[in-house]
Amino acid sequence: MQKVAIFVDVQNVYYTTRQAFQRHFDCQAFWRHATGQRQLVKAFAYAIDRGDAKQRAFQKILQNIGFEVKTKPFIQRSDGSAKGDWDVGITLDVIEYAQDVDVVVLVSGDGDFDLLVHKVRERFGKTVEVYGVSTLSATSLIQAASRFIEIDDPFLLSKK
Q: Can you tell me the distance from the alpha carbon of 17 to that of 147, in angstroms, rounded to the nearest whole number?
């Protein structure tokens, strides 16, 4: 049985599914697909904490599914710009867990991760599956992945 570790860039998947489909990512459908017939070693969901109740409720759902939710505060700069990403944290965790699994699953379309994906495949000889919205995922990331799984209908919640 394959061992798998999952790393979900919550902000990226939230905004890309909303932009492309006007729908939300179905975390449970994804979970069933990514973990099916595999031994889960670790699953992280990386989120930005804006301090609102709706967001905390969503994070609780993620925890109930089986994710360890990592949060960092949303930072509003004095010039009006904002910062809130987990790229370095995700990278460090992937490198830490890659040696213990057969498959690394990354949910993000962020091209900054293409170097990470190459490194995990080359250095550790691991399979890296990337889930992303194809029209909003970096070509370099798609090409770096062992397997790119398109986020579309099966991974989206129904419109309300």
A: 19
Token couple for 117: 């994906």
Any residues with CB less than 8 A from the CB of 129 and at least 6 apart, and which?
34, 103, 104, 105, 106, 145, 146, 147, 148, 149
Strand partners, 147: 129
Q: Which residues contact 154 (CB under 8 A, 6 or more apart)?
A: 26, 29, 33
Q: Are strands 38-49 and 68-73 parallel, antiparallel or unpaired?
A: parallel
Q: Where are the alpha helices (DSSP H) in the chain?
A: 10-21, 27-35, 53-65, 87-98, 114-124, 139-144
Q: Mean of the per-residue pLDDT values for the chain?
A: 93
Contact 70, 34 (CB under 8 A): no
Please indicate, yes or no, whether the overall pTM of this predicted structure exceeds 0.90.
yes
Q: What is the pLDDT of residues 12-71, one digit of tens each?
A: 999 999 999 999 999 999 999 999 999 999 999 999 888 888 888 899 999 999 999 999
Burial of 133 (0-12, 13-18, 19+ CB in 10 A): buried
